[in-house]
């Protein structure tokens, strides 16, 4: 794996959450909450065409309507919409996307193949699909739907399993052990 656009994943200057929601228990709401709790200082754009406002913040119908170009896009929308959101992210100038959404399938003709066909020619770095998200405590970034964010520290954690990652974050918080990412 190359290191291309990893700074946009682990230390973005701006973030958009596509599928942001005021609905309790939704992944979109949890991601927005986690970004706020982590203290992310850059602009955060909330994108959902169903809402004009989410918890007192303006919401936009598409990435193109944001007043800034998001460096990182977090996608929590239904699987069928993900390739189109990736195309919007490319058009908006995003450098990376975290696809939390599951159910994109595999192989020829799948939504995953369509996602890759939208992203690759433009160099859009993709994390996911079907992932917990990304947490980088030193950058005040918690772009995940984990129940808790990690403490900052020097230990990096990469896991294929979101359950293992979330469990280790919980374990670390209970023992005052922090993570770099």
Helix and strand arrangement:
Layout: H1 6-10, E1 15-18, H2 27-38, E2 44-47, E3 53-54, E4 57-60, E5 72-75, H3 82-92, E6 96-99, H4 111-119, E7 125-127, E8 133-136, E9 141-144, E10 151-155, H5 162-174, E11 178-179
Parallel strand pairs: 1-2, 1-5, 2-4, 5-6, 6-7, 10-11
Antiparallel strand pairs: 3-4, 8-9
Helix pairs in contact: 3-4
Give an overview of the whole structure.
The protein is an alpha/beta fold. It has helices at residues 6-10, 27-38, 82-92, 111-119, 162-174, and strands spanning 15-18, 44-47, 53-54, 57-60, 72-75, 96-99, 125-127, 133-136, 141-144, 151-155, 178-179. Helix content is 28%, strand content 22%. A seven-stranded mixed sheet has the order 3-4-2-1-5-6-7, with helices on both faces.
């Amino acid at each position: 794996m190359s290191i291309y656009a990893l700074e946009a994943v682990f230390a973005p200057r701006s973030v958009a959450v596509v599928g942001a929601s005021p609905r309790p228990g939704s992944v979109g709401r949890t991601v927005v909450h986690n970004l706020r709790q982590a203290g992310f200082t850059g602009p955060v754009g909330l994108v959902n065409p169903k809402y004009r406002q989410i918890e007192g913040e303006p919401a936009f119908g598409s990435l193109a309507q944001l007043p800034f170009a998001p460096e990182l896009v977090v996608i929590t929308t239904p699987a069928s919409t993900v390739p189109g959101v990736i195309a919007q992210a490319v058009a908006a100038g995003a450098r990376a996307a975290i696809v939390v959404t599951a159910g994109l399938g595999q192989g020829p003709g799948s939504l995953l193949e369509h996602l890759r066909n939208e992203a690759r020619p433009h160099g859009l770095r993709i994390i996911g699909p079907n992932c917990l998200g990304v947490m980088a405590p030193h950058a005040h970034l918690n772009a995940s739907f984990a129940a808790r964010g990690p403490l900052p520290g020097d230990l990096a954690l990469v896991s294929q399993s979101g359950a293992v990652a979330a469990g280790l974050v919980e374990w670390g918080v209970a023992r005052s052990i922090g993570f770099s990412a």
